[in-house]
Amino acid sequence: MDEFGLIRVWTEDRQSKEFLQGSGVILGIGDDTAIVQGASGQEWLLAMDTMVEEVHFLSDTMCEEDIGYKALASNISDIAAMGGVPKFALVSVSIPPNWNEQRMKKVYDGLYECAAQYEVAVVGGDTTAAPRHLVVSVTVMGTVEAGRALRRSDAGPGQFVFLTGATGLSAAGLHGLLPKPEGSRSPRPPQRLIKAHQRPSPSVKAGRLLVEQGWGSALNDISDGLASEAWEIAEASSVRLILKEAQLPLSGELAAYAHRCRINPLDWVLYGGEDYVLLGTADHRHEAAMKEQFRAEGIPLFIIGEVEQGAPEVLLEASSGRRQQILKQGYNHFSKG
C-alpha cells in the first residue's frame, strides 16, 4: 500500500466531521495544509516534541498504543504549562522496516485515544521511511486568552511554590520496566507507577484554573524532572527557589517501591521526569482560594516552597532548616553517563 493509502487506513474516520467542524477545522487531513479558524482575543500556542525508539521508549517499557498516547500527551502538557487549551495536532512518523502496518495502526490507536480524551483534532502530518528506528513527532496547537499565557519568567520574591501532583512516579515505573542485567532481580513496580510512565495525564484542567482565576504567575510542566524545571523558573525569573523537603509530595507506593529497590525515593522525586504535573508560583493572597478550588475540582495541590530574591538557584531545605543547592539535572537526551 502506498503512503496515502496507509495514511487513510490509520486516520480515516477516526474523528467525526461534526467534531472537527465544531473544533474549527475548515480543512483537515488530505491537502497540502490544514486550515483552522482563528479566534479574536486569543493567542496561538505551538509545541512540538519527538519520540525516538531506543532513546525515549523500548518494546520492554511501552506497547505500541502507549507510544502513540504518550507522543501526543507530552505535547498537550506543554500547552497546559502555558494555561492553554489544546486544539489541533500534526503527526509525523518515520517508519523502519520492522514496524509493519498493523503495529503502526496500534500506535495511531493510542494517539487517537489521547486525542479523544483531550478533545484534540488531528489535522495532518507526514509519513516517511526510516532505516532502523521508529520516530514519532507531534506538533500541537492550542489557544490562550491574549496576554494571559503563564511563563517561566514571571516568578517573584515572596510567592509560594506549588505542584499539581506528585513527582517521581514515572521514573519509578520506568526503572521497574527496564530490562536488567542477566541474573539480577528487580521487583515489579505497582501498576500505578507503570501507568504513570506509559499513560501520563497532562494537567490541562489545572492550567486553565490558574489562568481563568488569575492565580498563576510562573508555570512549567515536569517533563525533565522537578529539579530541572525549578532551575528553569529560577533562571528565567532571576530568583531563588526554596523547596522544602518535608513538603514534597511522596506517594506511599513510590516510597515502598523505592525501599524494595534500595533507592532513595528523593532521587526519583527530584530528578525523575515525564510526570507532566505542573510546577508554578503564585502570590500568597491566592493560596486559600487555590486550595479550596483545586480541592473542589479534585485536583491535587501541594505547597512545596517559597520564592526569594537572590541569584538564580534552587535550594532544598531540610526540616532542620539547613539548605543545600539542588543539582541542576534531570533527563538529558545527550548525557553520556
From TrEMBL:
Catalytic activity: thiamine phosphate + ATP = thiamine diphosphate + ADP
Record: residues binding Mg(2+) 4: D32, D78
Domain spans labelled PurM-like N-terminal: 30-144
Record EC number: 2.7.4.16
Residues reported in the UniProt entry to bind substrate: H56, E274, Y331
Cross-referenced CDD domains: ThiL (cd02194)
Gene Ontology MF, one: kinase activity
Amino acids binding Mg(2+) 1: D49, D126
UniProt-annotated binding residues for Mg(2+) 3: D32, D78, D221
Pathway linked to the protein: Cofactor biosynthesis; thiamine diphosphate biosynthesis; thiamine diphosphate from thiamine phosphate: step 1/1
Region (Disordered): 177-200
Further remarks about this protein from its record: Reaction mechanism of ThiL seems to utilize a direct, inline transfer of the gamma-phosphate of ATP to TMP rather than a phosphorylated enzyme intermediate.
Family: Belongs to the thiamine-monophosphate kinase family.
Purpose of the protein: Catalyzes the ATP-dependent phosphorylation of thiamine-monophosphate (TMP) to form thiamine-pyrophosphate (TPP), the active form of vitamin B1.
Protein name (record): Thiamine-monophosphate kinase
Protein source organism: Cohnella kolymensis
Name of the encoding gene: thiL
